[in-house]
């Protein structure tokens, strides 16, 4: 069995403990043994990053462009190989997994360009013969804690801006899917960065994550994951004066109005709710439908959901891969039971799927005749489970859509310019989709939400510099 070590200070470092990486499509398939770092190794990685930050922070825009561009080029060249690894360890279908790899490459390409585009300002002072310069500098050491549902794209969209703006990095990926992060780090290790600029410490959040969060040497922490963990991290980092960026949960609504194109609406709902096995913070888990189109919509989406092909992530015929692991599968099934007890009507799915091999396969569950107060419409399930809420008109739909502690993505299907414009303005979400699935975003524009979904600066696009740099104002008197 192959062993995969941590990467600290430019060296591959063995650990005392290794964890099996198991394929959720086939539990007999062990991808490899991945290192589980100790507290001491986490400290070593932070120290290495601190040392490297002085060197890399003084690098030129061309140095940064060259490194990022080289990383992107190799990701593109190895997209099929990396996509297969991602599908194997996380359970995304092969096309979705390869698409995620391509997105990681695009992110590195984009930030290669951003390294050359970082600008400042020169403004006149209110005092004569005084110049004012506003510039941006690296934060220093950035701690990155990433989730299991996008095991290469999310590490990419955190690492790329961090090093583009001259920072060094300590990244702890989700222990469940260390393979993609290891492969990305292996590519980065050959990009010509100073030793210690990027450090990979795999392992438990209670061990490695705690050290990253608590260290005074880590100037900023970017976390994507659950609400509870995010709030705990925020409190600890803020208390010691560090910068914090959080992307957490979602309970995203898709509103379908009477005038919507039925095929478009159903496609948006099915793709948003069930693709990537529903394991996306932007998934359309609440489908809010006005009464005039409700019956036709239910008939069509029920048939489309029932027809989805569940199977091995690497099978070309598969549309919905497995749930990521046993714990998440049990959570999903528990929410199905709760919904049934609270009176929701299950029209299809919600059971274990028999796919001919041992894996965490679940038939996508569609509930109808639900009410906004039901648990399934309040809490994030994070699986292939969607519920439909019937409403009278647009105003009620908007009210229900906004009735959530989250505010990441919100969608509407309509042919009306009036309603689409109004929804865009009044939806309490960081991202709004019109006649598109709530899941699926571009890599060159800001990503993030409101309320309980996000905290701190936006991720991605040129807005990323707000988190990964510090603004300095300099006054110069030319004597």
Descriptors:
alpha/beta; globular; Aldehyde Dehydrogenase, Chain A, domain 1; 2 domains; seven-stranded mixed sheet; Aldehyde Dehydrogenase, Chain A, domain 2; 23 strands; 22% strand
What does this structure look like?
- The chain folds into 2 domains: 3-248 and 453-477, 3-Layer(aba) Sandwich (Aldehyde Dehydrogenase, Chain A, domain 1); 253-434, Aldehyde Dehydrogenase, Chain A, domain 2.
- Helix 1 (39-57) crosses helix 7, helix 2 packs antiparallel against helix 4 (94-117) and helix 3 packs antiparallel against helix 6.
- Helix 8 (227-239) links the parallel strand 11 (220-224) and strand 12.
- The protein is globular, with a radius of gyration of 23 Å.
- The model has no long low-confidence stretch (mean pLDDT 97).
- The chain is built from 14 helices and 23 strands.
- A 7-stranded mixed beta sheet has the order 15-16-17-14-13-19-20, sandwiched between helices.
- It has helices at residues 39-57, 61-77, 79-90, 94-117, 153-164, 178-188, 205-214, 227-239, 262-274, 291-307, 326-341, 394-402, 417-426, 465-468, and strands spanning 3-4, 6-8, 11-13, 17-22, 30-36, 121-124, 130-138, 141-145, 168-172, 198-200, 220-224, 243-247, 253-256, 286-290, 345-348, 365-370, 385-391, 406-407, 409-413, 431-434, 450-451, 454-455, 469-477.
- It is α/β, with parallel strands linked by helices.
């Amino acid at each position: 069995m192959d062993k995969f070590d941590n990467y600290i200070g430019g060296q591959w470092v063995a650990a005392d403990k290794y964890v099996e990486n198991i394929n959720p499509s086939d539990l007999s398939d062990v991808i490899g043994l991945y290192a589980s770092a100790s507290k001491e190794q986490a400290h070593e990685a932070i120290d290495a990053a601190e040392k490297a930050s002085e060197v890399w922070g003084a690098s030129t825009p061309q140095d940064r462009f060259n490194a990022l561009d080289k990383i992107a080029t190799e990701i593109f060249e190895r997209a099929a190989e990396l996509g297969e690894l991602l599908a194997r360890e996380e359970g995304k279908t092969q096309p979705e997994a390869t698409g995620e790899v391509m997105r990681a490459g695009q992110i590195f390409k984009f930030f290669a360009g951003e390294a050359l585009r970082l600008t400042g300002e020169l403004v006149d002072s209110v005092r004569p013969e005084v110049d004012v310069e506003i510039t941006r500098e690296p934060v220093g050491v950035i701690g990155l804690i990433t989730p299991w549902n996008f095991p290469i794209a999310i590490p990419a969209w955190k690492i790329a801006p961090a090093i583009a703006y001259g920072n060094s990095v300590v990244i702890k990926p989700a222990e469940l899917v260390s393979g993609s992060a290891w492969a990305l780090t292996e590519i980065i290790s050959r990009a010509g960065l100073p030793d210690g600029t990027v450090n990979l410490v795999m392992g438990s959040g209670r061990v490695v994550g705690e050290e990253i969060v608590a260290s005074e040497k880590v100037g900023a922490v970017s976390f994507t994951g659950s609400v509870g963990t995010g709030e705990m991290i925020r409190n600890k980092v803020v208390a010691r004066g560090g910068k914090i960026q959080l992307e957490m949960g979602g309970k995203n609504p898709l509103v379908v109005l009477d005038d919507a194109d039925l095929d478009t609406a159903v496609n948006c709902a099915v793709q948003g709710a069930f693709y990537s096995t529903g394991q996306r913070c932007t998934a359309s888990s609440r489908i809010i439908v006005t009464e005039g189109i409700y019956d036709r919509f239910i008939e069509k989406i029920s048939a489309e959901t029932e027809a989805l092909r569940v199977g091995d992530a690497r099978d070309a015929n598969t549309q919905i891969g497995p749930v990521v692991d046993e714990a998440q599968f049990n959570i999903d099934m528990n929410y199905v039971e709760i919904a049934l007890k609270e009176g929701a009507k299950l029209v299809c799915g919600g059971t274990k799927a028999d796919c001919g091999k041992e894996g965490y396969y679940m038939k996508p569950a569609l509930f109808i005749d639900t009410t906004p107060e039901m648990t399934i419409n309040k809490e994030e399930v994070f699986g292939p489970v969607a519920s439909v809420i019937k409403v009278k008109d647009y105003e009620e739909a908007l009210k229900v859509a906004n009735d959530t502690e989250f505010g990441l993505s919100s969608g509407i299907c309509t042919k009306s310019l009036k309603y689409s414009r109004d929804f865009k303005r009044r939806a309490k979400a960081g991202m709004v989709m019109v006649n598109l699935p709530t899941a699926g975003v571009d890599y060159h524009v800001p990503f993030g939400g409101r309320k309980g979904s996000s905290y701190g600066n936006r991720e991605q696009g040129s807005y990323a510099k707000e988190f990964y740099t510090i603004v300095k104002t300099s006054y110069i008197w030319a004597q």
